[in-house]
Sequence to fold (283 residues):
Amino acid sequence: MYPLIIYNHTLTPAQEVNISPINAGLIHGYGVFTTLRIYNGVPFQFKEHWTRLEMHAHTVKLDLDEDIETPVHADLISLIDANKIIEGKARITLLERQSPFWQLGEKKSGVDILIFTADLPPKSIELNLTISPYRVLSSPLSGVKTNDYIPQFLMLDEARQRGFDDAVVLNERGEVCEVTTANIFWVRHLVLYTATPSTGCLTGTTSGLVRKLAKELKIESTCGAFHAEHLLSAEECFVTSSTRELVRVKSLNHKQFDAMPNSIFERLTLAFKKYVHKVTYPR
Fold:
């Protein structure tokens, strides 16, 4: 992580940030966040990330100021410049200040905004997945990117304890939802499939772009509720996220997905790279 961050629109060293010990985001996980990529010093898909973040903030009833998008975008740009980032990632976190159960001094309602940046972790070329024994349950927070990521961490840890890189998560109906921290796509008979939001999956910004690129490439695609058997009968599989981009899945349990020339995964990966270059690198 880079040493400078943004805290409530102020550029400050991370070590000097003073958050109340009873901040609801800290003690209850009451908040939402988004993580986006930085290419060539440009925050990629900021509009899409902010639109989703704002929607999730309204879902959990965070009281955001009106017209806050423009100053947050300006804050992010200034932070990227201050930390001299060319390639990396950024996280925007919105924290509810006031705990309904704890009080210290005067009540301070509102939302704290934290923005910080970091280098990218090494990118995996391919993944070996398993199906998690845990399930995503229906709740008011289904598909909302809250600060509480303990379930995802435990699912990921369980998969790694068994020698896998990550895990496919099903919902209580046995439908494919997502990977612990990414969306999942698979191909059957030249048709691209992914989970619909009704399964409880996060509506990913990268997955949305992949569906758009598939349409431009005239690749038939569909979102729906599919059981694990549908995924296990696929010819191709890959995951998407802002930090990972597109990563091929090599195996799922005992199912092997062979790398194929001119596969749908390769075509979409190339289209994604071209799109990134077009919007983030000047001519």
